[in-house]
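yo

u said u wanted the structure for the complex thing, so here. seqs first:
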Amino acid sequence: MKPINIGLLGIGTVGGGTYTVLQRNSEEITRRAGRPLRIIAVVDKNVELARNITKGSCRVTDDAFSVVNDSEIDIVVELIGGYGVARELVMQAIKNGKHVVTANKALLATHGNEIFEAAQEKRVMVGFEAAVAGGIPIIKAVREGLTANRIEWIAGIINGTTNFILSEMRDKGLSFDEVLKEAQRLGYAEADPTFDIEGVDAAHKITLLSSLSFGIPVQFDKAYIEGISRLDAIDIRYAEQLGYRIKLLGITKRTPEGVELRVHPTLIPEKRLIANVEGAMNAVLVQADAVGATLYYGKGAGAEPTASSVIADLVDITRMHTADPENRVPHLAFQPDAMISLPMLPIDEVVTSYYLRLRVADKTGVLADITRILADEKISIDAVIQKEPQEGETQTDLIMLTHRTREKCVNAAISKIESLPVVAGKVTRLRMEELGK
Ligand code: HSE
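structre next:
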């Protein structure tokens, strides 16, 4: 059994986990793959660290190009991240006829079309299970397990950092800033958490899922992205009083008008299983026509959970690399010549329901003025709560839930409502999803 030779680019958290799990489970993995999987070269800027981990078992270098150009290597595992040198290395590996495994969602969400096309041409595979929801085998599920279905929509908690922050805000009644500082102190959030908290990381992942679900090109530039940094703890409380939790969801949906692709804080009914996913865990809910709803839950990050996905791709490639390239599982679930172009809907055209919080004068006729504006925009109200004004105050919070309506209608109503003299400041608007059929 000739081993398959692997070059590992990056031996940080995920690379280290991959090395450890491959060593620990080598016997079982070989029994599954049919031949040993052997890391023969490791690249890291920190050569010392790489040597300490690998203990002389393979070549260690800081020259990544020497590895992607090494004729002995069959599979390159890219765990460097980013779109700079990682892109050059992946393209060079493909050009050299090597298979690639990557956890790099940013790279694939922005340059995936080019990468998959190059791979197709060179008849090599690009595995990216680790790029979406860490250890959850969601790519495999969508691409293969659900292949009989017409997928209708996907909604996922696909960023652990933000889910941890939202869980803490709810549990402890703390503000976003307080929880973020604590998460950074504990090492849960990156020193620069922008991609996580502003929803960019989740948008990279839902972009890939959208493409896999509908057989459309990867279109990160069409994603609507709103993070959680402006979320007020009071809205988490009010949502809870109404029976909802707020989660940062990545959503992609096929509608008769086109495809929705969006990331934003979302109210979801607390009775849904996905609403109860807490801390840094991830979960992806897929609605498909034949099977109905399926839910995938697990660790979305971390050394060994992500390594689990990297190694699953390594085993798949080991089993499949001698197969006729025409008969392999297509990168994006659909055959490359069967990909279609569907209109991508701007956020203004999205149809959903809404949570509105207004600061209003506690006076006769205020509610009537507001409901008239909503009625003029054909927005139907589902629930209203008016809080009693605090001792000595003349204003109070009014919370309204709407039925489903088009976002542009809600925006038009909000600007009219904000111009009413009895309404103080801005209206807080959050989207809601029932996540039922
Ligand atoms: N930073 C991501 C998260 C994990 O917080 O879920 C890697 O995608």
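Residues 350-432 form a domain with the Alpha-Beta Plaits fold (CATH 3.30.70.260). The first strand starts at residue 4 and ends at 9.
cya
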